[in-house]
Amino acid sequence: xxxxxxxxxxxxxxxxxxxxxxxxxxxxxxxxxxxxxxxxxxxxxxxxxxxxxxxxxxxxxxxxxxxxxxxxxxxxxxxxxxxxxxxxxxxxxxxxxxxxxxxxxxxxxxxxxxxxxxxxxxxxxxxxxxxxxxxxxxxxxxxxxxxxxxxxxxxxxxxxxxxxxxxxxxxxxxxxxxxxxxxxxxxxxxxxxxxxxxxxxxxxxxxxxxxxxxxxxxxxxxxxxxxxxxxxxxxxxxxxxxxxxxxxxxxxxxxxxxxxxxxxxxxxxxxxxxxxxxxxxxxxxxxxxxx
Length: 291
Ligand code: ATP
Ligand code: ZN
Hints:
This protein is of the alpha+beta class. The chain has helices spanning 16-25, 56-62, 72-79, 125-134, 168-172, 197-216, 231-237, 268-276; strands spanning 5-10, 30-31, 38-41, 46-51, 67-71, 87-91, 97-104, 119-122, 140-143, 159-164, 175-184, 186-190, 220-227, 245-248, 255-262, 280-286. The protein is built from 8 helices and 16 strands. The radius of gyration is 24 Å and the shape is flat. It starts with a strand and ends in a 5-residue tail after the last strand.
């Protein structure tokens, strides 16, 4: 097309800032220009197409944008609707929320079967319909555009299927969550058709960098000294670490330095366990980039 790659991102809303942060963390400098619809990336042939999140799977499916950042909930709902389907490339680790079945707190829920014959209000009719089908339940889906949580009070439905992160909105409306229909987070999607070879290089680089950013998020570099004999014990304590790097300490026959990348959170409890196992001089460092 224009020789520039297009990435569709949410213009404003819960994913907007996080999407820009991800791009910046991947070393792509976003130029917030006067053009509200398109932002340019300063140091790569990339434009950001800023749109409503509901339009992102449509644009990427149709090839108007080459890549897109959107909630899995929106993607899955779209997949039920249109022929041109974008491809889901990777989870991005932010925008986490669940699509849940909720009902008045006194509802007696004993699994999806309890929904048989009920009216359920939702803005996700396709995802809900798939969930009901998978569970062999027949119920009436009341499709709404928003404010689903008021449906039970208005006697429009006995239950709802809606996005929940903290549960505060449900509680404020006298509802409680009873089941999870979909666990969602922001995902990277790709157009189903191939891009020009020059732009494919840009796509590959974006994917590699995004993978690096998501992999290093929360990861820590842990260093310590310990007697060689307790090495197996220490390796077992380190959360989400592969095989650590072990180097002899100068002037000591039995003590070694242990370095490891931990993929999961390292808590104070972990450090106490390491110390109890014989480790000393324990350091935990943040990781900025990983490839
Ligand atoms: P738009 O104007 O782009 O259509 P919107 O109002 O549909 O925006 P937002 O409320 O900004 O959407 O939410 C965007 C996405 O953020 C959701 O589709 C979902 O993937 C994610 N998200 C994360 N936490 C929550 C939450 N607590 N409630 C709703 N969405 C959440
Ligand atoms: Zn939307």
